[in-house]
UniProtKB/TrEMBL annotation:
This is Type II secretion system protein J. One of its GO terms (biological process) is protein secretion by the type II secretion system. Transmembrane segments: none annotated. One of its GO terms (cellular component) is type II protein secretion system complex.
Amino acid sequence: MKRGEAGFTLLEMLVALVVFGLVMAGIAQAFRYGFTALATGQRAIQVPETLAAMDMALRRMIEQAQPDSMKGGPFSLAFTTRLPQGAGPVGGLQDVALQLAPGGLLVLRYAPHPAGLPLSPAPEPETDILATNVKGVRFSYLHASPGSAPVWEDGWSGTNLPLLVRLHLTLANRFWPDLVAAPAAHKN
């Protein structure tokens, strides 16, 4: 090779390729870290939003509970209500049940409430998962007795509705405040 010729030696090309490879590996790691951080941030934002939406939907359903329909214990609740818009069939009363299913799932089961005497077998209830990673569910019902102060009880059945229904969720990965809702059709 003559002194005046332009070009790179084989050694210079190998060094350039190694440096280029190290720079690309660093950029790939930076993108991976960025995408992981973005996904983690989005999950952290989405979970409270979905829990807030669930909280609002459950509150509305309890507020619209029909008289003579509520039966509940400490770990499940069933009643007749209208489902919020966007959840299940539009319009009409639905028989709903809330309970903790295996695998830490808070589920809502619902089926159309029969109007009058049913002439055919009841349809199979639909099931929606409201929350995941649930360690425990606890319902309680505020009962008013004539001549005494209202008292929280672990169970409810009867012709009237309770003054308030409280739902305590124990979540595996976060704290969520108790949901307390008042059935609007409460009879004294």
